[in-house]
Design brief:
The chain is mostly helical. The protein has one domain (21-205): Hypothetical protein af1432 (Orthogonal Bundle), CATH 1.10.3210. The chain has 11 helices and no strands. Helix 3 packs across helix 6 (118-128). The longest helix has 21 residues, at 93-113.
């Protein structure tokens, strides 16, 4: 059983805390994470994936690179258009899809430059391709990446950033997140962490 009290999410990016096996991938991704708060987002998603892998199934050698690279495609979307693609409510699905396809191309280039074999690259980019626009788990690895990505929204940092950029009252956003617990999470461990994090936000904001 996952010990929730042991989960501690760093709120400031520290490359030294990335597993050495994945550090070069993160270093290569950094230029593509300079928009949309994506550096801290990716760092926290990485940490949630690490926590999920203590219990959930999946290959870390696929999951962790996919987590690091899943949002590099936002660098190809104009900043003025980004919020249209992911603000709760009416979204521009073509932009959401574009960040996935652009991300696949960028991730392929990064992984190839680092010497990854084609078979492993294909496993990783297959998760990036559809991580936002598909809902069902296409593999155990896909489920962990999707859950780690969604957990960002429930984190202390993610919740604060989202209510500011969406200009939502805390209660409105809290209710939105709680209302999606059963829809979003594909692993038992992901849902358990989300419930725990939601409770922390409830206490912090008095919602």
């Amino acid at each position: 059983m996952m010990m929730l009290q042991t989960i501690s999410i760093d709120e400031k990016f520290q490359l030294a805390k990335i597993d050495p096996a994945f550090r070069d991938i993160f270093k290569s991704a950094l230029p593509f994470l300079e928009t949309r708060k994506n550096l801290i987002h990716t760092y926290i998603v990485y940490q949630y994936a690490t926590a999920l892998l203590k219990c959930a199934q999946g290959a870390p050698e696929v999951i962790m690179p996919a987590c690091i690279l899943h949002d590099v495609g936002w660098s190809a979307i104009p900043v003025s258009d980004q919020l249209k693609a992911f603000k709760p409510g009416k979204r521009d699905e073509s932009l959401r899809r574009k960040h996935e396809t652009e991300g696949v191309a960028i991730a392929r280039d990064i992984l190839a430059a680092l010497g990854f074999q084609d078979a492993r690259i294909n496993q990783i980019v297959s998760i990036i391709d559809g991580h936002d626009t598909t809902q069902a788990a296409r593999s155990p690895e896909d489920a962990v990446v999707k859950d780690a990505d969604k957990l960002w929204r429930y984190s202390k940092v993610g919740f604060h950033i989202d209510i500011e950029r969406f200009e939502f009252p805390p209660k409105r956003h809290f209710d939105y997140l709680v209302g999606h617990l059963d829809k979003w999470f594909l692993t038992r461990e992901g849902r358990t962490i989300a419930i725990h994090e939601a409770h922390q936000r409830e206490l912090a904001y008095g919602v």
